[in-house]
Amino acid sequence: MKSPWVRALSDRLFVPVGGIAVFLLLAAAFFHFNGYPPLNIFGQIVQGAFGSALSINTTLTKTIPILFCALATALPARMGLVSVGAEGQLYFGALTGTAAVLAMTAAPIWQLLPAALALTIAGGALWGAIPGLLRAMLGVNETIVTILMNYIGIQLVEYAVYGPWKDAGNLGWPATIAFPRAAKFPPLTLGTLSSNWALVIAVLLALVLHVFMERSRLGTALGLLRSNPRVARMAGLSYARHAVVVMALAGGLAGLAGWVQTANVQGHLQPDISSGYGYVGFLVAWLAGQNFLRIIPLSLVMGGLLSSGDALQLFAQMPFANTVVMQALVFISVLGVGAWRAKRRAVS
Amino acid sequence: MSVHAIVGLLATALLTATPVLLAMLGETLTERAGIVNLGVEGQMLVGAAAGFAANHVSGNPWLGLAVGALAGMALSSVHAFLCLGLGVNQIASGLAIMFLGNGLSSFYGTPLVGQQIAGFHGLEHSWVAAIPLAGEFLAQLTPTVYLGLALVVACGLFLYRTQWGLVWRSAGESADALRMLGKHPAAVRLIAVLTGGVFTGLAGAALSVDYTRTWVEQMTAGRGLLAVGLVIVARWSPWLALPVALIYGLSDALSLRLQSAGFDLSPYLLGTLPYVVPLIVLLLSYRASQRGTSMPQELAGVFRGMA
């Protein structure tokens, strides 16, 4: 005979704990099969992610764009839209934001940074609003449109940095001029930890979105649009307007990931802005069950996994792609355990 | 444009379209049985890497195609296990397969980067080139193009003209009706997902073994996802898959042709054509495909109420 709260707790923990257990088994099998000692590698992953001040700072740097992209995935998911477009929105936002830097390179930070951020958000919002609009007007599946637009966004950035925006001073290397400090998020240091203000903004946005979803009319409206569009229509909620606005907001969020990556990490616009952060953000949002609070720690974990990928490449000579395999295994484990439990519940 | 140039463009379009066509046929078969698989991109990548490796080791391009097809099937079995075995959301599972295929192909493909293979022998000096009138055109095509065209016919006849094809399509239209006949929809769907895996793995191998003859990480560059979208344009018909894949092939061939002709537009802007043109075609045909009766009814839920 279990007391109710023990049962409630084990209910909540079943999927995360079970998912992690299955993931560790699969990952251990993968490493073992490829001739790496699993326990040793697990140790190196933790060490590479959080073992020193330097590795923690690298992890934080990678956490920021993942966090933005996860928010950009979870927001449309709240009304039932499956957007995989954060990657393209990230690229297109960085592209439009760069226009501000090129137009007013010498401007002081209080002019340049807001202008760049406004253009970044506008660009990302446009890239997100298009699939939202197509879904709303024509009913076109947004998953396929967002993914195709990712490739177009990436190509447009390549066009800019190989073409009109290429800086001749780079000796043929495709990139714009180096960004001035006034275009970057100001640094933020706390003891040995160092990051920038984008981290604070991302976490705050996650908290604000969480409160909004739980406490505001909008949160309820989105939930209704997802679970019962017919009732939502009777309540006077416009599916089309919500789809466009939500997708535009999401695009703006993903655009910010592009800006922190371009301005703070790389220091200029170049072809490879993101190492798949849009897709990692998608995984994080789904693992979090589209819950904005859970997205924060999960982004940190994924950021750690990515930063340990660099370390494994260096010390164990393991191809960097092992991090992509690990991400996929995490996703499969949690999805599988969740669905298995739902099925057993439906039976009993 | 001379006749010669048009024939050349059409041949290039067919060569470019073949991997997409094969992937479309695979996804058409899978979706006709009532399952959506967004993992096509990953299955193509795994097929491309495994097929290239097999050809590189053995020197036999046919073996490369076969191994690629098997690799695609192996990965699709994960989708089958997640969706059919555990009841995971099909969209989520498909994306997981996409990531897994991407990761595995990059991981194991690292030593293959920069390697070269000979691929198939050209047909320029064979009896095909000696055929009057059409010989010049036919000789520019490769074995995978002919394989793709043959599979269009095979899939079309199978789905619409055989008893098994009827059972297959019934699994996509109404699982209940099929159960009433004493058949098992889940078994049909399992076979459909695995067959789709074979076709998409073959599609990837056709790309690396026959078309590019190299292996590069993420070399499919969205072709798999494009194929999923184009299946909707082709209204889940193997026959229509050919002209629709040719739209992709033509836009890609045209962007290459315009670049080499010194057309004054950035190759990166032209490079968006193979995505923009199919996207526009998708938009134009979407409403009609949803309104018509062509969509397998069991898919309606997956495409509409997701998450």
Entry summary:
The complex is a heterodimer of chains A (348) and B (307). Chain A is mainly alpha-helical.
What features would you describe in this structure?
The complex is a heterodimer of chains A (348) and B (307). By secondary structure, chain A is an all-alpha fold. Chain A has a domain at 65-291. In chain A, 75% of the residues lie in helices and 2% in strands. Chain A has a two-stranded antiparallel sheet with strand order 1-2. The model of chain A has no long low-confidence stretch (mean pLDDT 91). Chain B is an all-alpha fold. Chain B has a single domain (3-304), classed as Orthogonal Bundle (ABC transporter involved in vitamin B12 uptake, BtuC). Chain B has 14 helices and no strands. Chain B starts with a helix and ends with a helix. The mean pLDDT of chain B is 88. The chains are: A mainly alpha (348), B mainly alpha (307). Chains A and B meet through α6, α11 and α13 of A and α4, α10 and α13 of B.
Helix content of chain B: over 70%
Question: Would you list the SSEs of chain A in sequence order as H and E?
Answer: HHHHHHEEHHHHHHH
> Which overall shape of chain A is indicated by the principal axes computed on the Cα atoms?
globular
Strand content of chain B: under 5%
- Termini separation of chain A comes to 18 Å
Measure the end-to-end span of chain B: 50 Å
Helix content of chain A: over 70%
| Secondary structure category of chain B | mainly alpha
Strand share of the residues of chain A? Answer: under 5%
| Unreliable stretches of chain A | none
Mean pLDDT of chain A: 91
Shape of chain B: globular
User: Numbering strands along the chain, what is their spatial order in the largest sheet of chain A?
Assistant: 1-2
Count every helix of chain B, treating DSSP H or I runs of 4 or more residues as helices. Answer: 14
Using a beta-carbon cutoff below 8 angstroms, give the protein chain pair with the largest interface and the number of residues from each chain: A-B, 50 and 46 residues
What CATH calls the topology of chain B is: ABC transporter involved in vitamin B12 uptake, BtuC
Average predicted confidence as pLDDT of chain B:
88
Number of strands of chain B: 0
What is the β-strand count of chain A? Answer: 2
